[in-house]
Amino acid sequence: MKHLLLFDIDGTLVKFKTRRSRSIFMGMFLDLFGVETNHSDLPDFSGMTDLSILYSIADSTGFDRAKINRNIDRIWKYLIDEFRPISTKENLELLVNADVLLATLNKSNNITLGLLTGNFKGNAYLKLSVYDLVKYFAFGAFGDDYFDRNSLPPVAFGRANKLAGENMYSFLNSIIIGDSPRDIECAQANNMKVLAVATGLFSRQDLMVNSPDIILNDFSDIDKAIDALESLGVGL
Ligand SMILES: [Mg+2]
Asked: 46 alpha carbon to ligand 1 midpoint, in Å?
């Protein structure tokens, strides 16, 4: 049986060494709209889609969500222009063996790789490009598709099926791989299995609260990661 593996990016494949995203989003509100924000106006970004981050900041500062929607292309352009110069190996860490795991999985004819990330599409591929990981992901569902992460899996299935040329992927044979409680919730809301990995901001204990199907500390042991996927029914 074929499987679709949907990877999160931040905290799962790569991770910023410092929390640069927060100041970039604050700078965007100031530079494009003249709106001053405080750190307390910002939510915890982990697992949130970029669109939901924008709405959340808007709500806590009394800014109109409709104005976000009207200016969304300008906003994505501003953000990617700010993220581009800092998306370097100095600032962005490749999580241990993430590249080796992807290379291994990519060799299997029984596995299709896709993205399911809160990053808007441009930023998702920008981050992946730092470590030459773009080649593994022909498609995905992104933080500019919907504000609600739980709405993203059907988008990913649709794109996977379009690329395959037949209706072969659904919640039944797709698995989410991510580092935050929101990845786990997203899988569970869509009746999907989920492999959680504790390389982001959340510990194994934090992730256990949400009862993922399986948890790994990291991908340092590739055989262990493959075994974990096999325990979820994925055959290489
Ligand atoms: Mg993440």
From this structure: 6
For residues 214 and 231, the answer to whether their CB atoms sit within 8 Å is yes
pTM of model > 0.90:
yes
CA of 10 to the centre of ligand 1 (A): 4
What is the Å distance from ligand 1's center to 11 Cα?
Answer: 5
Show the tokens assigned to 213: 């199907």
**pLDDT tens by residue, 69-119:** 999 999 999 999 999 999 999 999 999 999 999 999 999 999 999 999 999
Range of the domain at 8: 3-16+91-231
d(CA 147, CA 49): 6
Reading the block at residue 131, the tokens are: 């470590």
Q: Quick one: tokens of 130?
A: 């730092």
C-alpha–C-alpha distance, residues 226 and 216, integer Å: 11
Beta carbons of 11 and 47 less than 8 angstroms apart: no
**Strand stretches in the chain, DSSP E:** 3-7, 14-16, 92-94, 111-116, 140-141, 174-178, 193-197, 214-216
| β-bridge mates for residue 196, sequence order | 178, 215
Q: Is residue 145 part of a domain?
A: yes
Residues 63 and 162 in one domain: no
The answer to whether the Cα torsion of 107, 111, 114, 116 is positive or negative is negative
Q: Which residues pair with 193 in a beta bridge?
A: 175
